[in-house]
UniProtKB/TrEMBL annotation:
Belongs to the guanylate kinase family. InterPro entries: GK/Ca_channel_bsu, Guanylate_kin-like_dom, Guanylate_kinase, Guanylate_kinase_CS, P-loop_NTPase. Its EC number is 2.7.4.8. This is Guanylate kinase. It is found in: Cytoplasm. Keywords: ATP-binding, Cytoplasm, Kinase, Nucleotide-binding, Transferase. It comes from the Bacteria. NCBIfam families: guanyl_kin.
Length: 206
């Protein structure tokens, strides 16, 4: 039996497009992917739990983690730090399990530089008007922050070509199905089972 490493999937896209919503729905249905819980310096929103939604850190703690090289990537996004714990991702992949990141665009591009074998999925809204409606209707941002996030979103959408796949989040269920298809197709591409047969044939087994 050949030991294979897991595949790193990165779901990214502009703020408010529905990354969190699609990821949660995907994880309600799929058990084989491992979600990497991010670290952030932003305060917990109502209903969020430390260690479940994020690992909430002070700025000092976060900067120490950066200095110690404990983050696979990190970005400052609309006034707060966000980052991916390196050890969890590397160990999980090493153990042959797929890891799923849901991160913003700067961070995804850092991962692409350091980990080009990852699978990069860009989620886009059906339109910019719909994107604004989604951020506003979520009700978590002040008017100023909505403006900042929309401004950043325009720049982020320009980075779409750096990704392997683009998924339109028109309906959550459709977007989840497309992400599931990408996961399946990447497994087929890497031909794990085929490689095992090849190895067995080489070893002279029937
Ligand atoms: N397909 C969809 N159709 C309609 N509304 C949606 C859809 N997907 C997500 N939403 C809504 O849009 C809002 C933003 O979604 P969500 O918080 O998942 O976005 P996000 O990309 O994770 O945002 P951020 O990057 O700011 O964390 C939420 O109110 C969510 O319920
Ligand atoms: N670069 C990273 N971005 C991350 C990470 N975890 C989450 N995010 C993204 O940040 C924004 C804002 O999130 P919110 O929870 O404050 O709305 C959003 O786009 C997330 O996808 C991370 O580890 N690294």
């Amino acid at each position: 039996m050949i030991e294979e490493k897991g595949i790193l999937f990165i779901l990214s896209g502009p703020s408010g497009v529905g990354k969190g919503t699609v990821r949660k729905s995907l994880f309600e249905q799929s058990t084989d992917l491992r979600y990497s819980i991010s670290m952030t310096t932003r305060g917990a929103r109502e209903g969020e739990t430390d260690g479940v939604d994020y690992f909430f850190k002070s700025r000092d703690e976060f900067e120490r983690l950066i200095a110690e090289g404990k983050l696979l990537e990190h970005a400052e996004y609309v006034g707060n730090y966000y980052g991916t714990p390196r050890e969890y991702v590397e160990e999980t992949l090493e153990n042959g399990k797929d890891v799923f990141l849901e991160i913003e665009v700067q961070g995804a591009l850092q991962v692409k530089q350091n980990f080009p074998q990852g699978v990069f999925i860009f989620l886009i809204p059906p339109s910019l008007e719909e994107l604004k409606d989604r951020i506003v209707s979520r009700g978590t941002e002040t008017e100023e922050k909505v403006k900042n996030r929309l401004h950043t979103a325009r720049e982020e959408i320009e980075m779409m070509d750096a990704y392997d796949y683009v998924v339109v989040n028109d309906e959550v269920d459709n977007a989840v199905k497309k992400v599931q298809s990408i996961v399946m197709s990447e497994h087929c591409k890497r031909e794990r089972v085929a490689k095992q047969y090849k190895k067995a044939l080489e070893a002279g087994q029937s």
